[in-house]
Amino acid sequence: MRITLFSALLLSLIFLPACGNRKKKHRDKCDNEMEATNKYTTERGSTVWVLVVDMLDEKPKSDPFTLIDVHVDDLNKLHLTVEYSGGCKAHEFKILGSRAILKSLPAQRPIMITHNANGDDCRAIIREEILVDISDFAYTKENGSEIILLIDGQRLSYIYQAPGHNDK
């Protein structure tokens, strides 16, 4: 009896690893899955990822850029206007939402935006519009669920709209 119970426990531990596992190899695998589903391309050809991450684990580097405008619409979309120098290569942006939500009413989620110029040393000033789905940043995926997004010193109210529940 003990051997069967031990064998069952051992097998369950072998097949248990999933995205919630803190081991790096499993987190990398899950980040790759997440990147594949949360990847966007802008009209200029820049790549944008929207990811929920452990901010304490993440130490992202960022090339210079200016956040000109940011707002959330009522369709779970984040609108960003960014400006950066370049013009010769495709750039990459990551919009990183913290897994850790600050307890308040309403709850708050820190957001970090990073820019990778991919070594583009051209000097044109590029202004780019970025539009991405931020449903994964919702407090809960229940219609009307509110959270404050803390982005670059700004507080943006985001109210999740469940598909088919847009009031407008």
Describe the structure.
- This protein has 168 residues and is α+β, with helices and mostly antiparallel strands.
- The protein has a single domain (40-159), classed as Immunoglobulin-like.
- 17% of the residues lie in helices and 39% in strands.
- It is built from 2 helices and 9 strands.
- It has helices at 2-15, 24-37; strands at residues 39-41, 47-53, 66-72, 77-86, 92-98, 107-116, 124-133, 146-151, 154-159.
- A 6-stranded mixed sheet has the order 1-2-5-6-8-9.
- β5 (92-98) and β6 form a beta hairpin.
- It is globular and about 45 Å long.
- The N and C termini lie far apart (62 Å).
- The model is unreliable at 4-35 (pLDDT under 50).
Q: If strands are numbered along the chain, what order do they take across the biggest sheet?
A: 1-2-5-6-8-9
- Main β-sheet: number of strands, strand sense, barrel status? 6 strands, mixed
Q: What is the CATH class designation?
A: Mainly Beta
Order of helices and strands: HHEEEEEEEEE
**What distance separates the N and C termini?**
62 Å
Task: Kindly estimate the percentage of residues that lie in beta strands according to DSSP.
Answer: 35-45%
Count of spatially separate domains: 1
Keywords:
168 residues; three-stranded antiparallel sheet; 2 helices; 17% helix; single chain; globular; Immunoglobulin-like; six-stranded mixed sheet; alpha+beta; 9 strands
Q: How would you summarize what this structure contains?
A:
With about 170 residues, the chain is an alpha+beta fold.
